[in-house]
Write a structure and sequence with these properties.
The structure is a single chain. By secondary structure, this protein is an alpha+beta fold. The protein folds into five domains: 5-255, BirA Bifunctional Protein, domain 2; 257-370, no CATH class; 456-551, Elongation Factor Tu (Ef-tu), domain 3; 559-698, Threonyl-trna Synthetase, Chain A, domain 2 (Threonyl-tRNA Synthetase, Chain A, domain 2), CATH 3.30.980; 764-876, Diaminopimelate Epimerase, Chain A, domain 1. Helices cover 38% and strands 26% of the residues. It is built from 22 helices and 37 strands. The strands form nine sheets. Strands 1, 2, 5, 6, 7, 8, 9, 10 and 11 form a nine-stranded mixed β-sheet that branches. A six-stranded antiparallel beta barrel has the order 15-18-22-21-20-24. The protein has a six-stranded mixed β-sheet with strand order 32-33-34-35-37-36, with helices on both faces. Strand 6 (128-133), helix 4 and strand 7 form a beta-alpha-beta unit. Helix 15 crosses helix 16 (605-621) and helix 19 packs across helix 20. It is globular. Pfam families: DHHA1, tRNA-synt_2c, tRNA_SAD. Its EC number is 6.1.1.7. Keywords: Aminoacyl-tRNA synthetase, ATP-binding, Coiled coil, Cytoplasm, Ligase, Metal-binding, Nucleotide-binding, Protein biosynthesis, RNA-binding, tRNA-binding, Zinc.
């Protein structure tokens, strides 16, 4: 029965191909048509709309090998991964499906033939058991009469005392919708358990479910009411890893060929040689999951799918740390995953470099906080007495060190400690509420105004209109008129003023007639209406009065240049850095543009220059910028980029720049790319893990920026007394000169230390065989006090040293004590005496402590008191 996982995968597909099934590829891990799922978690996900009757299909029989991920919700396997023999985050689901074609009899016969036929998997028939829904007599009879399974190996699942449809063997997609009974096939690992009631135990390792066949024949209307479907379907699933463990004659999924190779490679990097160690299994599982998640263009972040990825990575890194792997290792395993996954690794090969770069960067960023966080967790665990870690501690680790709660739980689980999840949620929610309060504190003036009115925006084609005044607000109160010198908000029935949205700032301009002038300083959205914020310079404006509007065209033009340039920047980034670059935010003003996007690696200067070059090339081509109003579905067919998909209406505005950029956008744009003139990136930075920011200027602002840079270089050459072309050499010479002078200073300081050490050595007092030394420096560098103490302790065998430095009526001190005195006197003891009598602060360890204070006049008295105290302590010994 021993065969490779790759062969098992292919044999499954070949079998169903012979049974007239269409072989379809795995859908991505990120469901493209289901916002209810973070990740694809079952083979049926890609056919959900067919099962629901929303979508027609050209085929009635299908087989797939589906990539799946289960890390949350109902299917949360993450905590069990590595500690059981069956659970994984990433796994492959073998499935065959029938859409109004064959049903129960054929589905069961196909499964039995594949599993037991000598031509295929050749599993002994007496090793297989089945379960059926307790009311599904038809399925029971098929197994008993047609397949000829003995009745004692057919287990009915269900309880007549509960809701008849609440059963493990009655499958349902949700609270309503397609559902039906299912039958499961189990492999029996041993005959030493004769009582079949053990079949129902959750921790039963004898019977392993390998295949589930769902008969979708009902539509659930309510909790207790289901009706038959006109068209019946079959949905099956068999875990590749589970069936491989059986066919390879091993008792654990982690012993199959795929994981054996992975675990051996991980073991070579660690101090663990036992290939069944849970940490090796966890890392092997997690690197597979991470590689495939990243291949679907997900990057680590603090939200949504990116956070799931980060949790998995950090859990793997913690186990790497646990088994003694000191250096970055996780990214090195990607090549091994590609090797062991065989034919299914094509997508990983294409994106190997990107996957490795992201994993390496994430590991580098987390390595410091991992070690520090684990130390804190270890310290906190020592303090607890009831085997329950406070939820406040778990939240602190998450909030400060980025420890996902399941990572903390993983550590606690190994020590039989539980987490107070109730307290964790309370602390977490408390911080959320405080965050909301803080956000409200900074909200703008439009928060308290609610307008039940729609204003027509005409600014795409017009820069001035004749409009009707609908509402006026002064001091956030509705009024009938606004008077001279008053500041307020005016709402019109129509306007050319673009309201701040989508990253583009609002227009400015004037609302006027022959008797009044209202200067518009900003424009914002209020629901479906648009508010014009500003000050009335002359006359008065009243409700129901007709007035004229006029935007500041120069201001609008400058904004439009930057907005169109933002679209070009987005396109260039995806072209040069990769299509996985996704916009995370933007700001478009009249002076500059800012663009935030997802990207993990460092952006090199040559890449910045390539981006600039590409955008300026687009500008020189002077492409026409067009807009179209389309349905959301039409926009998707044109591959338009939708940045915040759930915020769009069914009808959307799409901006086209040749075939370079197609984006859903409500903002205003210039007519041609050539209008932008020139594009120049002024800065690029990292604003969060995996999130980069680029700022840039266009048009005359770009010219001003370049002139400013030229002037700066010219001023620098004057200061350095050289030509522009010689600045680099001049700076390098100065740098070498400074380095030389610093070395001279270090040598002088060493001589100074030697002088002080000799001088202080002579000042040592003898107290009952122990050397005692105090000295007060004035205007000395504090860091050198510790250097001097370390040198003196090397020479003096049994010593207590207190060095003080006074600067501007404040003092700092360092206390050093040799190890052979710590049973009687510690540096902490002496520090506490000093800070108590001088109102100071301090900290440290038994051998060395330091601190400071302000009462310098008491120092001599305090040092004498310490001398007497030491004498007393030494007498006691």
């Amino acid at each position: 029965m021993n065969r490779t996982t790759s062969k098992i995968r292919q044999d499954f597909l070949n079998f169903f191909k012979e049974k007239k099934h269409i072989i379809l590829p795995s859908s991505p891990l990120v469901p493209y048509n289901d916002s209810t799922l973070l990740f694809t978690n079952a083979g049926m996900n890609q056919f959900k709309e067919i099962f629901l009757g929303y979508k027609k299909t050209d085929y009635s029989r299908v087989a797939t090998v589906q990539r799946c991920l289960r890390t949350g919700g109902k299917h949360n396997d993450l905590e069990n991964v590595g500690y059981t023999s069956r659970h994984h985050t990433f796994f492959e689901m073998l499935g065959n499906f029938s859409f109004n074609d064959y049903f129960k009899k054929e589905a069961i016969e196909y499964a039995w033939e594949l599993l037991t036929s000598q031509k295929w998997f050749n599993i002994p028939k007496n090793k297989l058991w089945v379960s059926v829904y307790h009311e599904d007599d038809e399925t029971y009879q098929i197994w008993k009469d047609i397949i000829k399974i003995p009745s004692q190996r057919i287990i009915k699942i269900g309880d007549n005392n509960q809701n008849q449809y609440d059963s493990e063997n009655f499958w349902q997609m949700g609270d309503d919708g397609p559902c039906g009974p299912c039958t499961e096939i189990f492999y029996d690992y041993g005959n030493n358990i004769n009582n079949t009631t053990d079949f129902f135990k959750n921790n039963n390792h004898r019977f392993i479910e390998i295949w589930n066949i769902v008969f979708i024949e009902f539509n659930r209307i309510s909790k207790t009411n289901i009706i038959p479907l006109k068209k019946k379907s079959i949905d099956t699933g068999m875990g590749l890893e589970r069936i491989a463990s059986i066919l390879q004659n091993v008792s654990s999924n982690y012993d199959i060929d795929i994981f054996q190779d992975l675990k051996k490679n991980i073991s070579q990097l660690s101090k663990i040689k036992d290939l069944n160690h849970p940490s090796l299994q966890i890392i092997a599982d997690h690197v597979r999951a991470c590689a495939y998640i990243i291949s679907d263009n997900i990057i680590p972040s603090n939200e949504h799918r990116g956070y799931v990825l980060r949790r998995i990575i950090r859990r793997a890194l913690r186990h790497g740390h646990k088994i003694g792997i000191k250096d970055n290792f996780f990214y090195k395993l990607v090549s091994v995953v590609i090797k062991v996954m065989g034919d299914t690794s094509a997508i990983l090969k294409q994106k190997q470099k990107k996957i490795e770069e992201i994993l390496k960067l994430e590991e580098t960023q987390f390595s410091y906080t991992l070690e520090k966080g684990l130390k804190i967790l270890k310290f906190e665990i020592k303090k607890i007495h009831n085997n329950i870690l406070p939820g406040e501690t778990a939240f602190y680790l998450y909030d400060t060190f980025g420890f996902p709660i399941d990572l903390t739980a993983d550590v606690c689980r190994e020590k039989n400690i539980k987490i107070d999840y109730n307290e964790y949620e309370l602390v977490k929610n408390k911080q959320k509420k405080q965050s909301i309060i803080n956000q409200k504190f900074y909200k703008s003036y439009n928060d308290n105004i609610i307008i039940n009115h729609t204003c027509t925006f005409e600014g795409y084609k017009k820069n001035h209109t004749k409009s009707l005044v609908k509402y006026i607000f002064v001091n956030n109160k509705s009024v009938k008129k606004i008077l001279k010198n008053e500041t307020g908000i005016i709402f019109l029935n129509t306007t050319p003023f673009y309201p701040e949205s989508g990253g583009q700032i609002g227009d400015i301009g004037e609302i006027y007639n022959k008797n009044c002038s209202f200067i518009v300083k900003n424009t914002k959205k209020y629901g479906n209406s648009i508010g014009h914020f500003g000050t009335l310079l002359s006359g008065k404006i009243e409700i129901d009065q007709y007035i004229y509007t006029k935007i500041n065209q120069n201001y609008r033009n400058a904004i439009q240049l930057n907005h169109s340039a933002t679209h070009l920047l987005h396109a260039a980034l995806r072209n040069i850095l990769g299509e996985h670059v996704n916009q995370k935010g933007s700001l478009v003003t009249d002076n500059y543009l800012r663009f935030d996007f997802s990207y993990h690696p460092t952006i090199e200067i040559f890449q910045i220059q390539k981006i600039e070059h590409m955008i300026n090339m687009y500008i020189r081509h002077n492409f026409l910028i067009k807009t179209q109003i389309l349905s959301l579905e039409e926009a998707k067919k044109k591959n338009a980029i939708a940045l915040f998909e759930n915020q769009y209406n069914s009808i959307v505005r799409v901006v086209f720049i040749n075939n370079i950029s197609i984006e859903l956008c409500g903002g205003t744009h210039t007519k041609r790319t050539g209008d932008i003139g020139v594009f120049k990136i002024t800065s690029q930075s990292s604003i969060a893990s995996g999130i980069k920011r680029i700022e840039a200027v266009t048009g005359k602002q770009a010219i001003y920026y370049l002139h400013k840079k030229d002037n700066y270089i010219k001023d620098l050459s004057i200061v350095l007394k050289c030509n522009n072309s010689d600045i680099k050499n001049k700076v390098e010479n100065l740098k070498n000169r400074i380095s030389c002078l610093e070395n001279q200073i270090i040598n002088l300081q060493k001589k100074e230390h030697t002088y002080y050490i000799k001088k202080l050595f002579k000042k040592c007092l003898d107290i009952k065989g122990t050397k005692f030394l105090t000295h007060i420096f004035y205007d000395y560098e504090h860091k050198f006090l510790r250097v001097i103490i370390d040198e003196l302790k090397k020479t003096l065998e049994k010593t207590i040293i207190i060095l003080v430095n006074v600067i501007n009526n404040r003092f700092t001190f360092v206390i050093g004590i040799t190890k052979n005195l710590l049973n009687y006197i510690t540096a902490i003891n002496i520090m506490e005496i000093i800070i108590e009598k001088t109102n100071g602060k301090g900290g440290g360890k038994k051998e060395i402590a330091e601190g400071g204070g302000i009462y310098t006049q008491k120092l001599i008295i305090v040092l004498n008191d310490i001398k007497s105290w030491i004498d007393e302590q030494l007498n006691k010994k």
